[in-house]
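The aim of this short unit is practical: by the end, you should be able to scan a pair of folded records and say something sensible about each. We start with the first protein, listed as its amino acid sequence and then its structure tokens.
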Amino acid sequence: MSKIRKKMGPLLLLIICQCAINSVKTHSASNPNIILLMADDLGIGDLGCYGNKTLRTPNIDRLAEEGVTLTQHIAAAPLCTPSRAAFLTGRYPIRSGMAAFSRVGVFLFSASSGGLPSEEITFSKLLKQKGYATALIGKWHLGMNCESSNDFCHHPLSHGFDYFYGLTVTNFRDCKPGQGSVFLKGVQKTLIIPIQIAGITLVSLAIARYIGLLNVPFQAFYYCLLIITISLVVLMFFFYHFRHLNCFLMRNHQIIQQPLSYENLTQRLTKEAMQFIGRNTDAPFLLVLSYLHVHTALYASEDFRGKSKHGLYGDAVEEMDWSVGGKSTNWEGGIRVPGLLHWPGVIQAGAYIDEPTSNMDIFPTVVKLAEAQLPSDRIIDGHDLLPLLQGKVTRSKHEFLFHYCNAYLNAVRWHPGNSESVWKVFFFTPNFSPEDSNGCYDSHVCFCHGGFITQHNPPLLFDLSRDPEEKVPLTPETESRFYEILRVIHQAVDNHTRSLQAVPNQLSWDNLLWKPWLQLCCSSLFQSCYCDYDSGESPLEVHSG
């Protein structure tokens, strides 16, 4: 499984934990307390319960020993934003407009206008309607505002969560001094040409009017120069103050720390989670604890720093484990993720399930456990996991799983009902090579169209049951059913495509861009947006930019 271990990508579901906390008054199968733990960038080969011999994850391993281990658990997308949308809604991100047609597949700025649409139904909304107390602690990354800096249309509290403590965007390396810049490497590269054009235009207009070649009224010329100048100043201001503007910690609608401090951050998240549980001992609750570990920027507190055998990454994994107590590709290493479920007395301890499952399955599973009703006005792509977990059925309902690279259908997985094989085809693959200037090796983010990909005709075909590392593509010579398999998969693609409906693109350039009027600051924008109220003091009113 070496290839799988090396190439794990962004949002990775770590643990689904259904458990009755000892101090909590719930032990029945109806309306159980539900705790969902998530981790970023954690490889399926990085945990002891999945075979790792050098990283210490005893608490996570104990959950596996006492619960069910999913060996073919799949993230619905290899990037944070679309995968989280699928996790919360049980639907492919393309259905909610949370899959990008542009290069950028995630939200980069807290002051963007895109996000999870209010029309989408999350499992937190449905459980809240059933009387559950609901909380999201940690990373959100599904947008915040739409038209003003305080409408909070995409905020967790607008999607069924009673309580939020965490980050609205993600854990950029830019947020931690000395860790480099994903933003400058990935985004500024696309803005260099527009900035150069604006600068050249500015100088050219000034020269042309000065020597008499541009005969326009002074007022119009002045406004043109003013607009261009202001645009350049705003861009430069944003680049220079990125950490203060984009990296902050919120409690509900209030900023409590800006910029974000990584000091004891995992402990703070864990403390908030335990306090939420303590506040809700007499009623059912849903807790989503969404770690920043082990997404870059890597960090570990003093108690864990330097203690593992794998540097800062290993320290971060072990710190995340303490709290439990290939990036952006659809290769198995980018989407096959750890999945553990724990519910003593209800699901079998120590069981392994080798059937394909998806993080979209959490939606119907959680909704069923809370005795809520699934929405009947939309397609839900996930399936209730409980029959599989309890051994009532032995086959996954996912005969086909469709893997998107942003908004482009990249690969398809087929698990025939009469076979143990799991076929997977790739229609294209991102260019991942140090020698390829259009590739994603240097930026660590793979784009999904144009010169950034290689089309395959016929598609690449693998049998994951025999070749989980996807080392050797099958051919008509090595697989007698080659064309039959492709025919069935193409028919499934046609059926899936016909089920899609046009929706607003939440990751369009207009929705992705930084908008100063949506910028939140806990102090004046001209005071560098600085505050630290995470010590327990009451935060001041949030200021708009």
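Turning to the second protein, read its sequence before its tokens, just as you did above.
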Amino acid sequence: MELELHNQTLPFSSIRNENEEKRISKLISKCPNMRALHQIHAHILTHPLLPISTFLFSLSKLISFCSSSSHRNLNYAQKVFSQIPNPNIFVYNSMIKAHLNAQNPSPKPLFIFKSLISFNQTYPKLNEFTLSLVLKSCSVLSAFREGGQVHSCAIRNGFGSNEVVQSGLVNFYGKCEDMMCARKVFEEMTERNLVAWSSLISGYSKLGMFDDTLELFREMQMSGVVPDEVVMLSVVSACGVAGALDVGRWVHSYIDKNGIEKDVMLRTGLVNMYAKCGSISAAKEVFDAMPVKDTKAWSSMIVGFAIHGHAEDALRTFNLMEAAKVRPNNVTFVGVLLACAHGGLVSDGRKYWSTMLGYRIEPSIEHYGCMVDLLCRANHIEDAYAFVETMPVKPDSAIWRTLLVGCKRNKILEKGELVGEELLKLEPLNAENYTLIANLYASCFQWGKMSHVRKHMKDKGVKVTPGCTSIEVDGFVHEFVMGDWSHPEHKEIRKVLEDVRQRVQESGHEPWISAVLHNVGNEEKEDDLSAHSERLAIAYGLLKTRAPVVIRVVKNLRACEDCHEVTKIISKLYMREIIVRDRVRFHKFVNGSCSCGDFW
């Protein structure tokens, strides 16, 4: 029997010598298609004189071949596996890995592992690779309970201090966002390899824990472990979440100086970081220098332009993406539609919606939200409401909130009340919803109804979420919470705030106190507004920096109308450029005006 591979004829008899395993492995690796694999499989089954170890090794290689991206055939792999009477651990590992590498994650690896250990003492002895593979599957599925059981199994079988297993555990707990357990396993490791460092840093980064991410990265440097592009991507991402531009620039410089490979993912991460830190020009510089741009890279640049309000640049980039024959995905069109919304480009938004459908991309709730946002920003409230009513998917709270903001801006009381009712059905305990409804009533001078909203909040025990704003100064990120005076320089910050308050008042601004829901006097409401977290952060920026240094702050909530107006005034009175990243977009304040055009 002979098998033709790459125009060569290899006799099967040649595999029956002292190098049987190597030769079979070579034959399988050179298989051009499944038909050839069937021939090898048939030969193995019809030559029972092969040693049992070689027989099982050969079948494990067959299973591995079926899991490769170019010849994926899990049904055949499962058939091979099911016909092995006594599979050894290598066969089990191959089968677990085959399902782990499948295009769509499934719990199948966990079922296989369960069958492996269900034979009590008769099951094939586990090894570290078995446990590592199953832990990876638990990570992909976010199967926290099952991962904990695998951890217990590892300890019972003497693998609790195995480096491969420990690395898998750090990765598993990190992916499941249990950083306490991830850190505990990491601290117990006698040898901390790159995988363990990378997994822990990635876990902290994913949760936005900037200080912990940076501290761990510094520890890694001191330990002598050389970071790779995966680690650097996590550090870069953490800088983006925190809005730490200075540290982000230092990390970028570190990557270049240490010759760390900048693959497409890391370069895209740098684009995202600069965009999120408010430096869209630096993001574009990195993007333009990319030798290869995939869909994610193009999408990141488009989204970056969109959140900065650069609608024309975003749409121009999309056109260049199409010209480069790079296929857009759902994220691309979120960026495109977001750009149209922030630019008030209704006709363009409708056109690109049709373009998205032409690419056979099924609209997600994010795409519908962008269209509602687009119509509301253009004051087409009736069209937006009709669009929501005809959506094939159920509107989420974000869409109803967008409609409510539109109704408030246009003082459409009756429609706004209907929207508010729908919003409270979905989120009856979200303080932001009550704030928006109260603002609607205030805009229409319905003070009695506004008081009723306050009472309703009190009866339900709804507490307003405190604003939190961060600012980076000299490489350190300082966080401020509304009304919190625990900062070590709080006395100096108060003095700056008082100066700001007096100068803003002298400019003729009257605080929009109706936005304050607390049942207190007007003077106390003004104090509440003055203590908003972005005011504290901006005051600290005025205290610690001088022009032309840009004041950049990151806020966890949507900017309120009064703070937005006051920041415009501050930028003019103090002749400072201020960039605020709120939950929705970027606001660039220069000489008394904002890049958002006063609607966001």
